[in-house]
Amino acid sequence: MRHYDNESVWDAVIIGAGIAGLTASIYLARAGQKVLLLEKGAHPGGRAASTELAGAQVNLGAHALNRSALPILREVGVHPAGAAPKLPGGLVFAGERGSINVSLLQLLLGSFLNVREKCQLLAFYRSLNKSDVSFLNRVSLQEHLETWVPSLHVRHIVLALVRLSTYCDAPDLISAGAVISQLKQSQVLYVNGGWQSVIHQLTWQSQQAGVTLLSGVSVQEVIGIRPQIQVNLKGGSQLISRNVISTAGPRSTLALLNPALTPAEEAPYRQLVPVYAACLDLVVTGMPRSRTTFVLGADAPWYFSNHSATALLSNHSEHQVVHVMKYLPVKGHSDPREDQHELTALLDNIQPGWTKHTVRQRFLPRMLVTHAMPTAAMGGLSGRPGPMVKRRPGIYVAGDWVGSEGMLAHVSLASAREAARMILASTDTKTEGEEEDGT
Ligand SMILES: Cc1cc2nc3c(=O)[nH]c(=O)nc-3n(C[C@H](O)[C@H](O)[C@H](O)COP(=O)(O)OP(=O)(O)OC[C@H]3O[C@@H](n4cnc5c(N)ncnc54)[C@H](O)[C@@H]3O)c2cc1C
What CATH fold (topology level) applies to the domain 90-190+275-370? Predict the structure, then answer.
C-alpha cells in the first residue's frame, strides 16, 4: 500500500476503484487535480475484476462489453481487444411438454412459430428502429408487449433477448423505453483476457495521470461540504478534500453521509431496484457438444455461453471459459441450492456429460449486476439520480445507478465522466465558499 499525505487537502477523494472510480480519477488527475482513490477491497476492479482459475481469466459471471461504452474507454486511453459473440445458436423452451431446443434458424424458417407469430417477431424488431422512444419511458415492458406482441411464444423470445441485453427479468417493472434503447445498442464484445484487462489498463492510466490509489482502505464517513469535506476512514484516520465522489452503491453512499440526507432527499436513492444473477462459472477442456456455444432459456431465465469460442481467456490451449447464469427474480425469494440445481440441469440438457470436461467450477449464488433497474415507475433511464448530491456541494456520486446515459458498465463510465466534469466546472467557475450546486 502506498502511503498517503494526510496533512494536505486533496482536490478530490474518490470512494471505490471499480470502473467508475478509476475512470473519474483519470479525468480529474489529467486536468491537474490532486486525486486520492480509495478501495476497500484488496485490489482495484470491483465487479469488473476477473479471477484466475486454472490459468484462465474468469469474470465474475458472464460479462459482455457493450460497444456503446467504447468511446469513453478510448477517451481515457483504454482499448479493449476482443470480438463479438455469434447470436444465440438456440433457445431452450422448458415448457410443460418437456424441454425443446430450437435454433434461431428453425424459429424463422421452421414450423415452431406460425406465420402470424413470425410477423409479430419481425414487427417487434422493426419497431426498434423508431428514433424516439421516450414516450415509452413510463410504460412497463409487459404492458408494451401485451399490446404489440399477442403471441406468448414470441413474447418469450423477446423477453429472452431483453434479459440478455439488460440482465433484468422483471417485465412488469422495467421501462419499455429503457429496454428499447438498450436493444438498439446491443452490440457487444467478449474481452480478451477478461474484464481484468480493462481494469489493468484503467489502473495504469490512472497511475500515469498521477492518482494516488490505495487498496484495503474503507471509507466510513463523509462529513460536511466543499471546500472542507472530512473523510473518515475505518481505523480512525481522517482526510480533508474539496470534493468527494462516491462510487459505492446508493444505500452505502447514504450511510456514509453526515449529516444524513432528509427522507425526501434520500427517496430517489432508496427507490432504486437492484438486479442480481446466480452465476456458474466453469473452466473446461472443451464441451461435449462443441458446436453449441450459446443458448438462452426462452420461458426460463437461463443463459449459457462458451466465452472462449469468441475471446482469448486462457494461455492453456485446451482450457475454455463457460458461463452459465440465471437472471434472478426481483421480487420474492430465490433459493441458491435450487438455482444451482437448475443451472446444472440446463447443462445436463444442452451439454450431457459436461462434468467430465470440467477442470474448475465456481458458483456465485447472488451477484449484484446493477444497483438500478430502469423501471417504468421512475421514468426509465432518466429517472436515476444525477451525479450531484442535492444540497451537498462538493459531494458527487457515480456508478451503474447514476445519470441518464446507458445501462450497466456504460452508465458507470458515463456518470464517472460527468461527475469529474462537474467538479472541474465548479473549480473553473466558482470561488470557494460560493457553491450553490445541487440545491
Ligand atoms: C454477473 C454480472 C454480469 C455483468 N455483466 C455485464 C455486462 O455484460 N455488461 C456490462 O456492461 N456490465 C455488466 N455487469 C455490470 C458491471 O460489472 C458493473 O456495472 C460495473 O463493473 C460497475 O462498476 P462500478 O465502478 O460502478 O461499481 P463497482 O464495481 O461495484 O465498484 C465500486 C467499488 O467501490 C468499493 N467500495 C464500496 N464501498 C466502499 C467504501 N466505503 N470504501 C472504499 N471502497 C468502497 C467496492 O469495493 C468496489 O470496488 C455485470 C455484473 C455482474 C455482477
Answer: Polyamine Oxidase; Chain A, domain 2 (3.90.660)
